[in-house]
Specification:
262 residues, mainly beta, Porin, eight-stranded antiparallel β-barrel, 10 strands, 60% strand
C-alpha cells in the first residue's frame, strides 16, 4: 500500500511539473502576410491646371487679285508663312468615370503665343519689291472639347480629345512707293503707298490625344498633342482693295500640363 501511494504521488508531481513547464513556454502564433490594398482613385469631378508647350502654324498665303485683276506674276503669288511659337495657357474641365476603366469629360482652355513669319516682298506683285513686305502672325487660341479615355491602371489615363477651336491671326501688307506709288499708274488717284494690318479670329475643328497621370493629393500631369484646321481666311488690303489674299491656316500644338482634381 505504501508503495502504491508513493507511486501515485510521484506521478502527480510529474504531471504538475509538465503542466507548469508548458505554461512557461511561449505560445506559437501563425503569422499571415496581408497583401497591400490596390490603389483606388476616382477621376470624377472638376479639374484645373496650367500648360506649357509649343504651337506650329502651317499657313499658306496666296495673292489672288491685284488692283482688281489677277496678280501680274502668278508664279510668285504663293508663300509659306509657317512659324513656331512658345505657348502658355490654362485649362478647366469636368470628368465622369462611368465605369471602372472608362472616363468621359468636357474641357475648355485658353493660351497665348506670338508666332510670325515675314516675307520681304509682295506675293505676285512686282519683281522690284523695294520697300515691300508681307507678314502673318498667330497669337492667342482657345477651345472647347470633349474627351474619352481608358484607365489602363487606376492612376494612368490614355485619352482622345476633339471639338471646336478658335485662333487669332493677323496679316500685314506694306506696299511701297515703287509698287503702289503715283508714278506707277499716274492716272489712278488711289494708287498710293500703304501699310495695313488686318486681323480676325478663326473658328475651326481640332482633334488630338494624350496621356495623363494622377498622383497623391489629387495632383495630375499630362502630355497632349492636338491638330487644328481653321479653313481659309479671305481678306483685302489697300485703299480700294488693291491686294486680295487667301490664307489657309492649320496648327499643331504639343503641351505639358500640371493640374489638380477638386
Amino acid at each position: 500500500m505504501t508503495r502504491l501511494l508513493f507511486s501515485g504521488a510521484a506521478a502527480a508531481v510529474l504531471m504538475l511539473g509538465s503542466s507548469a513547464l508548458a505554461a512557461d513556454l511561449p505560445t506559437s502564433a501563425t503569422i499571415v502576410a496581408k497583401a497591400p490594398s490596390p490603389i483606388t482613385r476616382s477621376w470624377t469631378g472638376w479639374n484645373a491646371g496650367v500648360s506649357l508647350g509649343a504651337r506650329w502654324a502651317d499657313v499658306d498665303g496666296t495673292t489672288i487679285a491685284f488692283r482688281g485683276g489677277p496678280p501680274p506674276f502668278p508664279s510668285q503669288a504663293t508663300f509659306s508663312y509657317d512659324s513656331t511659337t512658345f505657348r502658355v495657357g490654362g485649362y478647366l474641365g469636368y470628368d465622369w468615370q462611368f465605369a471602372p476603366k472608362w472616363l468621359a469629360g468636357i474641357e475648355g482652355d485658353f493660351a497665348w503665343g506670338n508666332g510670325s513669319k515675314r516675307a520681304e516682298f509682295l506675293q505676285g506683285a512686282t519683281p522690284a519689291n523695294i520697300g515691300n513686305f508681307s507678314e502673318f502672325k498667330h497669337t492667342w487660341d482657345a477651345g472647347i472639347r470633349g474627351r474619352i479615355g481608358y484607365l489602363f491602371t487606376p492612376t494612368w489615363l490614355l485619352y482622345l480629345t476633339g471639338g471646336g477651336q478658335w485662333q487669332h491671326v493677323e496679316a500685314t501688307v506694306n506696299c511701297g512707293i515703287l509698287t503702289c506709288g503715283p508714278t506707277v499708274i499716274p492716272a489712278d488717284p488711289n494708287n498710293t503707298p500703304f501699310l495695313q494690318t488686318n486681323s480676325t479670329t478663326r473658328f475651326g475643328w481640332t482633334l488630338g490625344g494624350g496621356l495623363e497621370a494622377m498622383f497623391s493629393g489629387n495632383w495630375m500631369a499630362r502630355l497632349e498633342y492636338r491638330y487644328a484646321d481653321y479653313g481659309t481666311w479671305h481678306t483685302t488690303f489697300g485703299p480700294i482693295s488693291q491686294i486680295t489674299k487667301d490664307f489657309a491656316v492649320k496648327t499643331n500644338t504639343a503641351l505639358v500640363g500640371i493640374g489638380r482634381k477638386f
